[in-house]
Amino acid sequence: MGNIGTTEIILIVAVLILFFGARKIPELAQGLGKGIREFRKASREIQDDSDSDAKKLENKTPDQKG
């Protein structure tokens, strides 16, 4: 499972063309690409915030609170 073959890809593309038409596919792909980029950017920002918070906690001495 997880391996997509050539036949499956051709079938998926054919179904997309039937549903949306050949003219809409580039627009859909562009929108999907933008969505993926935004998701990755948000994921990186969350990871960076998490890392910086962890470093702040590591730098505090045990007698410091808050």
Describe the structure.
With 66 residues, the protein is mostly helical. Helix content is 76%, strand content 0%. It is built from 2 helices and no strands. The longest helix is centred in the middle third of the chain and has 35 residues. It is elongated. The N and C termini lie far apart (48 Å).
Concise structural overview:
The protein has 66 residues and is mainly α. The protein contains 2 helices and no strands. The chain is elongated and about 65 Å long.
Question: Which helices and strands appear, and what pairs or packs with what?
Answer:
Layout: H1 6-20, H2 25-59
For the secondary structure, the number of strands is 0
- The ordered string of helix (H) and strand (E) elements is HH
Radius of gyration: 22 Å
The backbone outline, from C-alpha atoms, is elongated
Sheet/helix structural class: mainly alpha
Q: What's the assembly state of these chains?
A: single chain
